[in-house]
Amino acid sequence: MRWGWLLPLAALLAGCSDAKPDKTRLVIQRFFGACEAEYGRVTDIAAAEGECGIMTAMINRFEAENPDIDVVENIVFWPGYDQLTAQLAANDAPDLVTMHGSVISDYQARGLLEPLDADLTAIGAPPASFTSAARAAVTVDGHAWGLPIDTWAPLWHINMNLFRKAGLVRGGKPVLPRSPQELFAQAQQFRARTGKPYLVQGTANEYAGFTRNFYTFVMQQDAAPFEGGRANFRTAAGRNALQLFRTIYERDFTTKNQDYSAAVAGFLKGDGGVFLVGTWMVGTFDAESRKTSGALANGGYTVVPYPKLFARETTFADGHNWVMPRNNRRTPEERAAGVRFLKFFAGHARHWARTGHLPAFQAIIDSPEWRALPHRDNLATLATTAQPLPKDVRRQFPIETIVGTEAAAAISGAKPIDQTLSDMERRVNAVLDNL
Amino acid sequence: MTRSRLATGLVILAAVLMLVPLLWVLALSLKDNAELMTDTASVFNGRFTLENYRNLFGNGDVFRWIANSLIVSFGMTAGVLMLASLAGYGFARLEFPGRNLLFVVVLLGLAVPEQAVIIARHQMFSWLGMHNSYPALILPGLSAPFGVFLMTQYFRAIPRDIDEAALLDGASRFTIFWKLLLPLTIPAQATLGIFTFLSAWNDYWWPLISATNKDMFTLTVGIASTQMNFAQTEGLGFLMAQAVFAGAPMLIVYLFFQKYIVQAVAGAAGR
Amino acid sequence: MPSVAVEPAAAFTVPVPRGRGRQDWRSALFVAPYLLVFVAMLVVPLAMGMWLSTTKGDLFGTERWVGLANFVRLFGDAIFLKAVANTFYFVLLTVPFLTLAGLGLALVLNRQERWAAVLRTIFFASTVLSVTVVTLVWRLVFLPDGGLLGVTAEALGKTPIAFLNDERLAMPAIAVTTIWWCIGLPMVLFLAALQQVPRDLYEAAALDNASRWTTLTRITLPAIKRTFFLVIIIEVILQFQLFGQPQLMTLGGPNNSTRPIVLFIYEAGWRQWELGYAAAAAQVLFAMILIAAMVQYRLSSGKEAA
């Protein structure tokens, strides 16, 4: 046997994964990446930075405080749903999983999640204590199916140094448009005075941004992109939302051909005035504005929710949540250990707020500590204005790609807007009709 | 002579084009992530660091993932070489009922795309409760008909008089296979070895859905799991360090097998 | 050979046949181990997949039997038909080039010198990278704003082209990426074949003062004909299964111009949870590869007979 030497090695490896007998095993499966090199031993949550760092420190701390629980941390490649689906099909699902609010109803509708109402109340984190956006994210059919971690929304990240140069700062605050016409006028002025486009967008081979913008500006017109669980795009509101970005593109008010990474680098280099990206970048840009060199230097950065360009102040939002997938083999002890982790997480939720995401608990948003974090005052309104899609819309994940790719075709001028809206609606409804 | 020079020149030019992205990967892996976030062109300013590699080794799981990948890749390579050589010899040289029909069926198997079988395979291993194990990671790869096809071709290319002479000497079929013919197929074994090891090492889909337990991750799945959602923006250098690290064992295996190909040629030339 | 009798493989010993063509079921023992794995890991799952393609359901259970409804829906699905066309287009862009370039490289690099070994390693090196890294690097190459080609174009005073955002250029760009990634395998296959060509043939040609061209067309190429068709079949099969490159570089866009069938299958099965529909698309892909491979095989055996 030339490969015989492998056998003892395999046995050795199999040996070290043996469960510790006197401990309850708790399998936590999450995204947000791995940063063991930096945070592997950190239990001081307040000292951790970034999504990965804070999450790792929290789990370390929980393990240290609960010696009777053996936490197995299964980190998966973003977003990890293919793996979770495979695990559920093999009846081998982990005890707790990170899940986007937009995905919850897919698993809930197939009976693959545990309802957590009673547990949430028992651990002192009842749904009533969540923000309305966070509550909407985990509630389906009147039951809570998870503990919300945060809410995120796309934001207007503003280069104040360029805004000042463009004459768009009044009283230390950025001047924001209140209608599409004002937006075009300000973008025109911005271009004339700085020679740069008003918007920075990562649009090359990225489609989620198109979708978020489309949903947001349809909802701002008091229209619903989805009604009764079906797409409803062929409306005046749908046309206006696409036309808005078509004009921005046509009149060169935006960077073009940047992918996500290039857009981030571009904004940091001062390529344009407003970067349309989510809550997760607040910390990075704020740190950059505390430096003395660079395009955002000397406090040249602020961030606000999407301005109200139409009738209603609202922004499309999604969020991260903890859910408990069904697993017939989970013991009551394991389930209890999972609930204890949720209790721990809810108790330390204020730390997660430092990631830039909007806290899931209203009490944190109202707290002076949170308000004291950079730019959070501007963002507090999101707790009421941020709006996820309705829960009767399943398969939001693939739908996002369909809407985004179609919208991109219309905005770049490859396809007429009306045809785009009808293609978009037909393709999305084909997905929804075949559930 | 000029034509040959021209060809060589073209190949060298192509090699340079091949090399540029590779060197870029290497250079990016030696750069600070924060610096890359603002400007990927900062590669040219000459400031390099080993930080990314330190972070890579700082994650203790990485070594386990390498061990898993090595076990799976070597196991699959050994298994494929064994099964394919036996079957290739059988199909090329021996007569048994239904041989031609069976060979055609195996050839048809070449056309089966992974996506057509992966879900059913997943269900089968679920029923057997075999996910998160080395057999689950290795067995599906053993069924690939490519090896049988390749080995049958090579055995057929070997002149028949070699084994017929041995048969007249009273050697058994297995002895002929093992002692006479197998050594002649070393270039094919090396090729098949490279091909199998490569596909096992870089396989992503099957390990992703079968090895869902962190302890059973292969290197490709494990490395992917450490990435943040926006790793390309925030950790470009780290991502590239992972790529270099994951690719290096493959290159070593290639160089190893290449030596065997060359040795086989040298042997043939001296014959 | 007295050692034969004590070898554990004695069970394989068969009586000396009186000539060729003698049938013996024990000879089948050589192929039995492989066939066992083949049936368990390929034939059975394929049959299950065929059954799934006639049902409606997701990974957690089958809802009902729908007959051929999935196939009917597929052939009325513009996105799927576009995916079929995209797949053929991609195979045409890559397979002939990979085959001929792989052969060319092997012919030039089939030498003992050190520089040839170095170049062989360079051409093989890209093959060891995973698809994630390959696509990331090439996105950085193709990116008009700050990418390698973009910077070069600007340095030359030209407007950078947005390759991956252009409906006509996106698929060729993916083909270039794929060729860069995959050229190592055909080269290695051809190298192995070249090294099997008996030396004495070349010695005889040299004695006849045959030109290089004559040696190539009369000796080398006929000797590696099997490998030539082998490479084509392998590449057709591999490239028909294009998946990671468009998934990671373009998501099938712009305007559906780069979505191949496997990406369609993935989206239907894992994103939309339509297992039956995905299984049906997989059967169509199977049929397409089968036909392509059979045409190749027919051609090759036809030529061999001639």
From TrEMBL, chain A:
<dbReference type="InterPro" id="IPR050490">
    <property type="entry name" value="Bact_solute-bd_prot1"/>
</dbReference>
<comment type="similarity">
    <text>Belongs to the bacterial solute-binding protein 1 family.</text>
</comment>
<dbReference type="Pfam" id="PF01547">
    <property type="entry name" value="SBP_bac_1"/>
</dbReference>
<protein>
    <submittedName>
        <fullName>Extracellular solute-binding protein</fullName>
    </submittedName>
</protein>
<dbReference type="GO" id="GO:0042597">
    <property type="term" value="C:periplasmic space"/>
</dbReference>
<dbReference type="InterPro" id="IPR006059">
    <property type="entry name" value="SBP"/>
</dbReference>
From TrEMBL, chain B:
<feature type="domain" description="ABC transmembrane type-1">
    <location>
        <begin position="66"/>
        <end position="257"/>
    </location>
</feature>
<dbReference type="GO" id="GO:0005886">
    <property type="term" value="C:plasma membrane"/>
</dbReference>
<keyword id="KW-1133">Transmembrane helix</keyword>
<keyword id="KW-0472">Membrane</keyword>
<feature type="transmembrane region" description="Helical">
    <location>
        <begin position="176"/>
        <end position="198"/>
    </location>
</feature>
<dbReference type="InterPro" id="IPR000515">
    <property type="entry name" value="MetI-like"/>
</dbReference>
<keyword id="KW-0812">Transmembrane</keyword>
<dbReference type="Pfam" id="PF00528">
    <property type="entry name" value="BPD_transp_1"/>
</dbReference>
<protein>
    <submittedName>
        <fullName>Carbohydrate ABC transporter permease</fullName>
    </submittedName>
</protein>
<feature type="transmembrane region" description="Helical">
    <location>
        <begin position="236"/>
        <end position="257"/>
    </location>
</feature>
<feature type="transmembrane region" description="Helical">
    <location>
        <begin position="7"/>
        <end position="27"/>
    </location>
</feature>
<feature type="transmembrane region" description="Helical">
    <location>
        <begin position="101"/>
        <end position="122"/>
    </location>
</feature>
<feature type="transmembrane region" description="Helical">
    <location>
        <begin position="65"/>
        <end position="89"/>
    </location>
</feature>
<dbReference type="GO" id="GO:0055085">
    <property type="term" value="P:transmembrane transport"/>
</dbReference>
<comment type="similarity">
    <text>Belongs to the binding-protein-dependent transport system permease family.</text>
</comment>
From TrEMBL, chain C:
<keyword id="KW-0812">Transmembrane</keyword>
<feature type="transmembrane region" description="Helical">
    <location>
        <begin position="227"/>
        <end position="244"/>
    </location>
</feature>
<keyword id="KW-1003">Cell membrane</keyword>
<dbReference type="InterPro" id="IPR000515">
    <property type="entry name" value="MetI-like"/>
</dbReference>
<feature type="domain" description="ABC transmembrane type-1">
    <location>
        <begin position="84"/>
        <end position="296"/>
    </location>
</feature>
<comment type="similarity">
    <text>Belongs to the binding-protein-dependent transport system permease family.</text>
</comment>
<protein>
    <submittedName>
        <fullName>Sugar ABC transporter permease</fullName>
    </submittedName>
</protein>
<dbReference type="Pfam" id="PF00528">
    <property type="entry name" value="BPD_transp_1"/>
</dbReference>
<keyword id="KW-1133">Transmembrane helix</keyword>
<feature type="transmembrane region" description="Helical">
    <location>
        <begin position="169"/>
        <end position="194"/>
    </location>
</feature>
<dbReference type="GO" id="GO:0005886">
    <property type="term" value="C:plasma membrane"/>
</dbReference>
<feature type="transmembrane region" description="Helical">
    <location>
        <begin position="275"/>
        <end position="295"/>
    </location>
</feature>
<dbReference type="InterPro" id="IPR035906">
    <property type="entry name" value="MetI-like_sf"/>
</dbReference>
<feature type="transmembrane region" description="Helical">
    <location>
        <begin position="88"/>
        <end position="109"/>
    </location>
</feature>
<feature type="transmembrane region" description="Helical">
    <location>
        <begin position="28"/>
        <end position="52"/>
    </location>
</feature>
